[in-house]
Amino acid sequence: MSKLIYILNGPNLNLLGKRQPEIYGSETLADVERDCIRVASDLGLQVRFLQSNAEHQLIDWIHEAREDAAGIIINPAAYTHTSVAILDSLNAFDNPIIEVHISNVHKREPFRHHSYVSSVASGVMAGFGTQGYQLALQRMAVLVAAANK
Ligand code: DQA
Predict the structure, then answer these.
(1) Which one of the listed residues 24, 79, 116, 133 is annotated catalytic?
(2) Residue 139 C-alpha to ligand 1 middle, in angstroms?
(3) Which residues contact 130 (CB under 8 A, 6 or more apart)?
(4) Where along the chain is substrate bound (predicted)?
(5) 88 annotated to bind ligand
(6) Which of 6, 63, 79, 101 is catalytic?
(7) From the CA of 103, how far away is ligand 1's center (Å)?
(8) What are all long-range contacts of 109-118, with beta carbons under 8 Å and residues at least 24 apart?
(9) Which atom of ligand 1 is least distant from the CA of 132?
């Protein structure tokens, strides 16, 4: 019974903490990873926390997750709004998917209001800051437990 959760982060999230802190806050991605590992461990989950600026790398990790992951939490960043390829790869993943956005994309430019990924996600977190990852993990624990019943 796998309890491994992939947490995937898309382009520019490596700059978290430095990039537009008025929108994304001052925590770094390393801070987010540290918090996710702590919360996951409290929930009895393991985490593989990854970031890439390359669409193909995110897709390769989603394919890899098919082999060993109980769920995927993904912040596809700008690819949210553009990538049919990431949607197709997520459609080939059979376990729960949760989409996370640090900012409230619905309050921002109209081009951020559409997500290709939402159609395959069990749920979407947006506007909860980096805490959204922890909230997504809490929900993921419930979904994984239900799938293993
Ligand atoms: C984001 C929102 C996207 O619109 C943007 O391109 C990002 C980050 C967020 O976490 O709020 O890079 O996914």
Answers:
(1) 24
(2) 21
(3) 16, 25, 27, 31, 32, 35, 102
(4) 75, 81, 88, 102-103, 112
(5) yes
(6) 101
(7) 7
(8) 111/81, 112/80, 112/81, 114/81, 115/80, 115/81, 116/80, 116/81, 116/82, 116/83, 116/84, 116/86, 116/87, 117/74, 117/76, 117/80, 117/83, 117/86, 117/87, 117/90
(9) 10
Give yes or no: 133 in active site. Answer: no
Q: Which of 13, 14, 28, 80 gets mutated to test ligand 1 (max ligand atoms within 8 A of its CB)?
A: 80
Q: Summarize pLDDT for 51-91 with one digit per residue, the tens.
A: 999 999 999 999 999 999 999 999 999 999 999 999 999 99
pLDDT tens digits for 101-144? Answer: 999 999 999 999 999 999 999 999 999 999 999 999 999 999 99
What tens digit of pLDDT does each residue of 10-56 get?
999 999 999 999 999 999 999 999 999 999 999 999 999 999 999 99
